[in-house]
Design goal:
The protein has eight helices and eight strands, in the order E-H-E-H-H-H-E-H-E-H-E-E-E-H-E-H. By secondary structure, the chain is of the alpha/beta class. The strands form two sheets. It has a five-stranded parallel beta sheet, with helices on both faces. The protein has a three-stranded antiparallel beta sheet with strand order 6-5-7, with no helix packed on it. The chain is globular. The model has no long low-confidence stretch (mean pLDDT 88).
Length: 214
């Protein structure tokens, strides 16, 4: 099964994707993770990605599509979760072509709906373990009192440079301008299902399971 998790930055797509990976054996193709890998690489492409991300803007279609294509060439396991891609109608068409090229198809599109103000509050409070990538949030999932990651015991925690209100508002505006047409696009195809992206993690998980198992 191949699915898209659709929603603005910070809606919880990554968290739900990891649950699907653990419970259904799917492969998460996270645009954000792939871009961060490129950013950390130190290559010319990585430097371009870093500049764009730190400014809170979206990277070009050419960069994202190339990264996705490389991932689709590997093991398909229990199917793919497209997390943060597509963001535009052009990318949606490109994804359809990529899937066809690799002998696959899209089975469902899950829209994670959110309230912008609540989303800003959630994102500006988040951090990750620098060792294993485990996510934390000052409000809903604070770093353990002993200062150690509950998953790996690491003590190095990081916040993304673009996880501030000004940068986030810019990213949200870009998202709505470019991505909103996807709602109608996938609705017309009969693929779109919506869930409450601001619910508790287990609540969102249950809603998504209901969509996928219908």
């Amino acid at each position: 099964m191949n699915i898209i998790l659709l929603g603005p930055p910070g809606a919880g797509k990554g968290t739900q994707a990891r649950i699907l990976v653990d419970e259904r054996g799917m492969i998460q193709l996270s645009t954000g993770d792939m871009l961060r890998e490129a950013k950390a690489s130190g290559t010319e492409m990585g430097k371009k990605v870093a500049a764009i991300m730190d400014a809170g803007e979206l990277v070009t279609d050419e960069i994202v599509i190339g990264l996705i294509d490389e991932k689709l060439e590997g093991d398909q396991a229990g199917g793919f979760i497209f997390d943060g891609f597509p963001r535009t109608l052009a990318q949606a068409d490109a994804l359809g072509a990529l899937l066809k090229k690799h002998g696959a198809k899209l089975d469902a599109v899950v829209e994670m709906r959110v309230d912008d103000d609540a989303l800003v509050s959630r994102i500006t409070a988040r951090s990750t373990c620098g060792t294993c990538g485990e996510g934390y949030n000052d409000i809903s999932k604070p770093i353990p009192a002993d200062g150690k990651c509950a998953n790996c015991g690491g003590t190095d925690f990081k916040r993304r440079a673009d996880d501030n209100e000004e940068s986030l508002r810019t990213r949200l505006m870009e998202y709505y301008k470019k991505t909103s047409p996807l709602i109608g696009y996938y609705h017309a195809k009969g693929d779109l299902q919506s869930v409450n992206g601001l619910g508790e993690i287990d609540e969102v998980k249950a809603e998504i399971a209901g969509v996928l198992d219908a």
